[in-house]
Amino acid sequence: MTDDPPKDWPLRTHARRIRARHDWWVVEHGTGPQVLLLHGAGASGHSFRSLVPALDGFRCLVPDLPGQGFTRPGSRGRFGIQPMAEDLAALCAAAGWAPRYVIGHSAGVPLGLQLSTLMPLDAVIGINAALGQFDGAAGFLFPLLARALAATPFVPSVVSRLWGNEAKVRQLIEGTGSHLDADGIAQYATLVRRAGHVDGTLGMMAAWRVDQLMAGASGLTVPTLLIANAGDKVVPPRVSAEAARMLPRAEVREMPTLGHLSHEEDARAVLAVMKDWLRGHGQIS
Hints:
- This protein is of the alpha/beta class.
- It has a domain at about 10-135 and about 210-280: 3-Layer(aba) Sandwich (Rossmann fold).
- Helices cover about 40% and strands about 15% of the residues.
- The protein has helices spanning about 50-55, 80-95, 110-115, 140-150, 155-165, 165-175, 180-190, 195-205, 210-215, 235-245, 260-265, 265-280, and strands spanning about 15-20, 20-30, 35-40, 60-65, 100-105, 125, 225-230, 250-255.
- The chain has an eight-stranded mixed β-sheet, sandwiched between helices.
- Helix 3 (about 110-115) links the parallel strand 5 and strand 6.
- Helix 2 crosses helix 3 (about 110-115).
- The N and C termini lie far apart (about 45 Å).
């Protein structure tokens, strides 16, 4: 189908579609304890292309979030944290999944924490977790701007046309503090060229209310690791430190290098931090 990924898309041979409120594009890879991997805004499950093969001994479950990547949204009214977490729980039920862990990147971390209130999880691991608000006036204006853009006809098509080339995408990626190889840049360019993906990303950004989630932080009792990267120009390490002070069972580990897309730059280095924390908490041997 034309809405499916290109034939050389990462992990495509391990993917299928599942209908559960949305028409999900999901990857299932490996055997062992189940781990659900949730990408950030503007990305897709492909962002875990290096981390998934490295997670030897785990069953990796990797959905594209509604409206992004290659998941067709069933409703534009379900792009917020609470409804998206509910829909992820419905996906797990439909697919017969029972994940023990969630690994989230950026905006995928609030989703993992919200999901922990809907189903039992042993741990949530966040990579450069987007658990804070923009500072100052941007914290007020940015969601309003996203809502306006999401509601304006033709904006996604215009963005795709203007920014759907590898030079612009490389500029955007490097603005996050990360540096990807040519294949990584080309994959993000493929996403940006899809007007539906841009529309879904804008819809998610417009509906995102991390402040509401963190207002109930005392009730988010799942053991949580927040991995922060010193080179992240999108979500600086102080955001993870502030979130950890609010969450009852959270720990921060800061890596001295890499940027916002650290799991794409050096998946094994990020995985080493995860496994060390899981061993320390008796989750793995």
